[in-house]
Design a protein that fits this description.
Length: 379
């Protein structure tokens, strides 16, 4: 992150980095490959104690932020997690916390937020479906009025930490429009199908809703009026994901540049070859632009500017495309060892590939940008 950090934020960054280096070095990441959740609960509790889950949570429920922009505080953590491809349901927990803090009733906030802030419970956002659309138009799960409540039917895909979550934030479509619900995973009719991804620690799954009956008190916000909520949640998710990916790019570039200086061929270091210097210059440009995207999206989304949606999509599209380009070039520059299990490179490639796809790849966001620009011109 390049924008000015205050003293508390800088201490937060240093503490986060020390915690990750101690509790989640890359050797620990590798050891979690077969872990069903992809992270240890004790580790997550420790992360919560440091404040990873607190910025969007009101102080009355155990939260609190370091600045007047809670998202900027969280971006600090996201970047540090990217540098060590760290585990944990950081993104979904904070998206749900932000949604409940903004739109939840007093009872909903009291029931959900303290556990999330303390790291005692995990929540996730059940949003995308089989059509692979990461927007409100892609929501096909239905919410049908029944008695005093609703009946949910449909299947959610690519739900991060689905098998770990005790609470689901479900985006569905009612006759009145998009509506969101807080649904415990233990609710009858909810079936979680655990899945895997190419990432060593990040777990996803499908969540099926087979006639799930929920009371009216489960509605988050107003019935049929969740469109702005969903957009806000998507922007927060994109900001945190972009920051994590930028942190990952930074670390890969760092150890690749170091290798180019250490590795000698024909009596000279690799870094001395002009053709490689040109490629390094390109990668440095991609990295610095990704950092700029991180700053821009943290500011725009965090402060709620009018162009936040467009900034979020610009950031995601750029970072999704050029993170993969940087990673691919770094594989080549590290040589044959970079395609082995023993080298750390594949850990970053795995995380980068997942981040590129989840919440929409660059092509999805190019299309979204065109739509947003057209809507702005019409307005």
């Amino acid at each position: 992150m390049n924008f000015e950090l205050n003293e508390d934020q800088r201490f937060f960054q240093e503490t986060t980095r020390r915690f990750l280096e101690s509790e989640s070095p890359l050797s620990a990441v590798r050891s979690l490959y077969e872990h069903p959740e992809g992270f240890e609960r004790a580790y997550w509790s420790g992360a919560a104690e440091l404040g990873w889950t607190s910025p969007f949570v009101p102080e009355g429920h155990g939260g609190g932020s370091l600045s007047d922009n809670p998202l900027a505080d969280l971006v600090i953590v996201a970047e540090e997690m990217g540098r060590l491809v760290a585990p944990g349901p950081f993104l979904p927990v904070n998206v749900v916390a932000a949604a409940v803090a903004q739109a939840g009733t007093a009872d909903q906030q009291a029931a959900v937020l303290p556990g999330l802030a303390a790291g005692e419970t995990v929540a996730t956002w059940a949003f995308a479906e089989a059509n692979d659309r990461w927007d409100g138009e892609g929501v096909g799960t239905t919410a049908t009025p029944s008695g005093g409540g609703f009946v949910l039917r449909g299947t959610k895909r690519y739900v991060e930490a689905a098998a770990s979550a005790e609470q689901l934030l479900v985006t569905a479509r009612s006759d009145a429009g998009l509506t969101q619900f807080l649904v415990p995973t233990a609710t009858p009719g909810v079936t979680v199908v655990p899945g895997r991804s190419v990432d060593l620690t990040r777990r996803f799954g499908d969540v099926r809703f087979d006639g799930v009956e929920v009371p009216a008190s489960a509605v988050l916000g107003a019935v049929g009026d969740a469109g702005p909520q969903v957009e806000r949640q998507l922007q927060i998710a994109l900001a945190l994901q972009v920051a994590e990916t930028a942190g990952m790019m930074d670390r890969v570039f760092e150890f690749t540049f170091e290798y180019l200086g250490d590795r000698w061929t024909f009596g000279r270091p690799l870094a001395s070859y002009q053709a490689l210097k040109h490629r390094v210059a390109d990668m440095r440009l991609w990295l610095e632009t990704a950092r700029g995207c991180t700053d821009a999206v943290a500011d725009a989304v965090g402060t709620g500017t009018a162009d936040a949606a467009r900034v979020a999509s610009v950031a995601k599209a750029y970072v999704a495309e050029y993170s993969i380009a940087l990673l691919s070039d770094c594989v080549q520059m590290n040589g044959g060892i970079a395609v082995t299990w023993e080298h750390d490179m594949h850990l970053y490639e795995r995380r980068g590939s997942v981040n590129r796809a989840v919440y929409g790849n660059e092509y999805h966001h190019y299309e979204r940008l065109c739509r947003l620009i057209a809507e702005g011109a019409a307005a």
